[in-house]
Amino acid sequence: MAQKKKKKSDPNNRVVAENRKARHDYEFGEVTEAGLQLTGTEVKSLRTGKANIAESYASYENGEIVLINAHIPEYDQGNRFNHEPRRPRKLLLHKREIAKMSQAVQRDGMTIVPLKLYFNDKGIAKLAVAVARGKKNYDKRQDAKKRDWQRDKARLMRDRG
Prior knowledge:
This protein is α+β, with helices and mostly antiparallel strands. The protein has one domain (15-135): Small protein B (Small Protein B, Chain: A, Beta Barrel). It has helices at residues 21-25, 40-47, 95-108, 137-160, and strands at 15-18, 26-36, 57-61, 64-68, 89-92, 111-119, 125-134. The chain has a seven-stranded antiparallel beta sheet. The model has no long low-confidence stretch (mean pLDDT 86).
């Protein structure tokens, strides 16, 4: 019998930061994977796993999409070449994707929300962004009711059979 090899968790392919509150506050449209234009100390700081994208958003400026207010802390051994923690960072997208997102923001009043910052299989930092529409309070309450009902229904089905 051949033994199955346990796959070790790849240090390159892991989530660094996640925007969990966005699922509560927004309805997502299309989700896109974007690269980030980073400096060396930013990448080293991300590899330590200390980033925060909870209060960040992306906006269309001068023909490009920029990530604003994402916090990547300074690298400890970075000395004078260190980066500014909350600087605007350019998102690397194709022209068509930029055009589609900017039209959705301008025409439909939607927002570009970062969902997750991670390293892909090749060890490159990527950001999952979505074009989203903000939820109203009644939408949030409706979603909570639906979630509670699904939980209760699953519990009833489990108990009955």
